[in-house]
Amino acid sequence: MKVFYSPKCLEYSTLGHPETPQRVWNIFEALKDDTRFEFRSPQPAKEEDILLVHEAVLVEKVRTNTFLDADTPSVAGIFEYALLSAGGATDAAQACTRERYAFSCCRPPGHHATRSSVGGFCYFNNIAVAVARLLTHKKTVAILDIDIHHGNGTEDIFLGHKQVVYCSIHQAPLYPGTGLTSKKNCHNYPLPAGVNGAQYLATLAQALRVIAEDRPDILAVSVGFDTYTDDLLGGFQLHIEDYAQIGKRIAALNIPTFFVLEGGYSQDTGRCASSFFGGIEAQ
User: Fold this and answer.
1) Looking at residue 7, what is its pLDDT?
2) Which member of 54, 111, 112, 150 is catalytic?
3) Angle, in degrees to the nearest 10, between helices 78-96 and 56-64
4) For residue 160, how many other CB atoms are within 10 A of its CB?
5) What pLDDT, in 10s, does the model give residues 215-237?
6) 37, 3 in Cβ contact below 8 A?
7) Where are the beta strands (DSSP E) in the chain?
8) 70 with 176: CB under 8 angstroms?
9) For position 282, what pLDDT does the model report?
10) Which residues of the chain have pLDDT under 50?
11) 2-282 has which fold?
12) What are the sequence ranges of the domains in the chain?
């Protein structure tokens, strides 16, 4: 599996903010010596690709650091870092059209960025940019969001799109407070705090049935390891071994798939990722 990762993702941080360089470093350390993974350097996304899913005014706000969101800090150079993370997702999407799987291990995350606003640690919606590129090639795409937070930005961008089906499994109530009901092509599965591995897998089976029935050309997965029992920002009770089972069930769809890192704020993101991708590769 090709993994798109750059040390540049480690260059910025904000004191006291949970979205830290350590998140991606832990995953890199966990996967780098495993011969099943081939690391590649991502290329920054082109502005024209960002504009497929975001309004020009948002792009300019990120470029000039003139956005305002309490959770999404203004960081020197964030425009370049956000382009690189979106580029990693796009590279992974292109790679999975030639091979079975690919993973973008980059930051910042993306699934809370809407067409017109940053939010929830996200500047550009990485997975949406990658999916939009695929749509220009007449592909049909299913997006599975397994971050503990609802991907409100991804839903905002693709709601009603005839080539996309979106499925999100998330905790509710929890930030951003959306995703409580399903509508049109967006299928939401809100779950209460305290959900364990068995309960989660039962809900995952429902989402995977929707995806299988849609028969997409490509599956895009927003991967969040904040469903882990010791995560700082979530309330689910998933354990390391549960991620292998999640991976096996996703892989059983037998669809070319790319994975894009979203959340995950514990010290065990590397172990979670190793278990998850081990399950993917074991299928």
Assistant:
1) 97
2) 112
3) 130
4) 9
5) 999 999 999 999 999 999 999 99
6) yes
7) 2-4, 38-40, 101-104, 141-145, 164-171, 186-191, 218-223, 257-261
8) no
9) 83
10) none
11) Arginase; Chain A (3.40.800)
12) 2-282
